[in-house]
Amino acid sequence: MTDEVPDAPQDPPARAAAEASESAGTAARTEVPDAAAESAGPAALGVVRTPTGHAEVDAGLERLADADHLPAHGHVEVYEDVHRGLRSALTALDAPTCPRRDENRS
Q: How far apart are CA 14 and CA 60, in angstroms?
């Protein structure tokens, strides 16, 4: 016994109609950019940034607001800066908070 299912034969007129329908749908979805939309420039997305209660993380979230008024190529610098800050905050969580057992020996 096999799990293979033979392909159902499709008659040429039905296949041609399906292909024509697909190409018409593609043509209908192709949009010409509106000149007014292009000249509007960057716009804020209006994403609400909820405070986390961790000062470093909240500072990073606020820094993301700087990207709202920048063009797309300027976002990289902001995102990398926020990523560095978040990585630093996570690394600080791994730091020991008290001296290790062998550090207080005389």
A: 56
